[in-house]
């Protein structure tokens, strides 16, 4: 394929994805002598949990809630083909410069896409200006909706509607496209697809990533943001038009970004508002160590499964294409054994919530446990100690849960198991699900919710 012709462009100002957090804990870098910390807090490689909590409370009491613009994420490496494959096989994010797909970069503007997509209606996210595209909408979850419109309508309204932002999310090929019943793209775009798929399949075979599966073409006018979340499959993201900035957080820092519970509509999203974090509630977020990269047209990002990522579009028209590789079906033990150890905190919280939730639901159904005793309470007491009124039988079940976790996690110490249990409950993250209907884009839903001027809902 032809090489991409890069043109001189004005530098893009950095996208403010994160406010600067407080200074890191003493165990992550040497303390500043001006802090005058008690020596007892600095003893050991890892501080006891109680000392960490005292240190954070001291910091917040002193008003140290943000550090003055001194926090910088590490850059994601950008490599040539062979080095890209080597980094990818290690399960680390990496960018391939000037990959295949150069012809898409040269021609995939709104005019070309309209000529190839004007005959069908397409799924579009619609949110109030300034609201994030979180792909799940409903009262108590977030304003927005998923609707359908023709490409000419989308192109016109996304420019003229000053009150809302628009983001088109449509399948590009394969199984997702087959669900539409017909191929809605023009002949030129079908040729584009054949060439890109041929190149991507060769790349995934070389990288041993597995078979290409789900995919999406993303089209927007820029300046919007998708909040921090993770995907359960390996992801290849090709930037075609405009720029996107990815903030990436490794899965071993899952508890520091406080995921929503698994039965919440925003499961797989972070509870933390990265632009204005509540350090009183989410104090571990102060220690997050992130990576960041801005993709130029023609760049390909490998994003490993379970890595947290927040995505900000640069200004101006924005088009990108991403493919997820098929997830291998495996039993629970195999998933833990075959997944990178740095993913285990994320897998652990999902297992704990699912396993204890199932136990408590069955006990409620059998009327063997008061309805006021929740799975969240069971998990909390597993991590911090049993309450006096917790039945002995439930304590034995708790020991079974802990034993199963130890079996799945391998050679962890009792202290490390305690940390996993406490992390699962930290920040009051086991919140109740909102009692409302939601629209979930990934499930093919249409509809949504907006608040009117009086705060009531409009679907």
Helix content: 25-40%
Tally of strands: 18
- Residues in β-strands, percent: 15-25%
How would the global form be characterised?
globular
Instruction: Provide a count of the helices.
Output: 13
Here the CATH topology of one domain equals: Jelly Rolls
User: Roughly what is the average pLDDT, rounded to an integer?
Assistant: 81
Q: Would you identify the regions where 5 or more consecutive residues have pLDDT less than 50?
A: 1-70, 453-457
CATH class of one domain: Mainly Beta
CATH superfamily of one domain: Jelly Rolls
How does the helix and strand content classify structurally? alpha+beta
Query: Whole-Å distance between the termini?
Result: 47 Å
CATH-scheme architecture of one domain:
Sandwich
Query: How can the largest sheet be summarized?
Result: 11 strands, mixed
InterPro entries: Cupin_8, JmjC_dom, RmlC-like_jellyroll
Pfam family, one: Cupin_8
Protein name: Hypoxia-inducible factor 1-alpha inhibitor (Factor inhibiting HIF-1) (FIH-1) (Hypoxia-inducible factor asparagine hydroxylase)
What does this structure look like?
32% of the residues lie in helices and 21% in strands. By secondary structure, it is α+β, with helices and mostly antiparallel strands. Among the domains are: 74-250 and 289-328, Jelly Rolls; 332-428, no CATH class. The strands form three sheets. An eleven-stranded mixed sheet has the order 2-3-13-10-15-8-7-4-6-17-18. Helix 10 packs across helix 11 (375-384) and helix 10 packs antiparallel against helix 12. The longest helix has 22 residues, at 344-365. The relative contact order is 0.15.
């Amino acid at each position: 394929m032809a090489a991409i012709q890069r043109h001189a462009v004005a530098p893009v100002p950095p996208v403010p994805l994160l406010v600067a957090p407080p200074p890191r804990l003493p165990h992550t870098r040497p303390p500043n002598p001006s802090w005058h910390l008690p020596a007892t807090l600095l003893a050991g490689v890892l501080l006891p949990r109680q000392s960490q909590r005292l240190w954070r409370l001291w910091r917040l009491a002193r008003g140290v809630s943000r550090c003055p613009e001194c926090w910088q994420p590490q850059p994601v490496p950008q490599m040539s083909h062979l080095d890209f494959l080597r980094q990818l096989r290690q399960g680390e994010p990496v960018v391939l410069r000037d990959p295949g797909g150069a012809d898409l970069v040269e021609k995939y503007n709104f005019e070309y896409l309209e000529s190839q997509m004007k005959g069908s209606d397409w799924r579009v996210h619609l949110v109030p200006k300034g609201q994030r595209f979180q792909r799940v909408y409903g009262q108590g979850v977030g304003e927005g909706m998923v609707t359908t419109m023709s490409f000419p309508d989308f192109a016109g309204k996304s420019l003229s509607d000053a009150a809302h932002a628009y983001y088109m999310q449509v399948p590009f090929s394969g199984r997702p496209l087959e669900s539409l019943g017909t191929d809605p793209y023009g002949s030129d775009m079908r040729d584009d697809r054949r060439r890109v798929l041929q190149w991507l399949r060769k790349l995934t075979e070389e990288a041993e990533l597995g078979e290409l599966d789900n995919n999406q073409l993303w089209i927007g006018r820029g300046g919007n943001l998708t909040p921090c979340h993770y995907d359960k499959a390996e992801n290849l993201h090709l930037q075609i038009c405009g720029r996107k900035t990815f903030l990436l957080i490794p899965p071993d820092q899952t508890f520091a970004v406080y995921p929503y519970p698994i039965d919440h509509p925003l499961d797989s999203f972070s509870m933390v508002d990265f632009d204005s974090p509540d350090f009183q509630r989410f104090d571990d977020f102060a220690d997050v160590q992130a990576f960041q990269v801005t993709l130029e047209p023609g760049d390909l990002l490998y994003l490993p499964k379970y890595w947290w990522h927040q995505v900000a579009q640069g200004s101006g028209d924005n088009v990108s294409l991403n493919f997820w590789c098929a997830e291998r079906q495996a039993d629970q033990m195999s998933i833990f054994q075959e997944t990178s150890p740095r993913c285990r905190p994320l897998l652990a919280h999902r297992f704990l919530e699912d396993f204890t939730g199932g136990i408590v639901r069955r006990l409620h159904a059998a009327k063997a446990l008061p309805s006021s005793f929740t799975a969240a309470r069971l998990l909390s007491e597993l991590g911090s100690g049993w309450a006096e009124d917790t039945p002995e039988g439930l304590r034995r079940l708790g020991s079974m849960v802990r034993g199963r976790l130890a079996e799945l996690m391998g050679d962890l110490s009792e202290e490390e198991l305690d940390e996993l249990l406490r992390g699962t409950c930290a920040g009051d993250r086991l919140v109740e699900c909102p009692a409302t209907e939601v629209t979930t884009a990934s499930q093919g839903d249409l509809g949504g919710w907006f608040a009117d001027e009086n705060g009531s809902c409009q679907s």
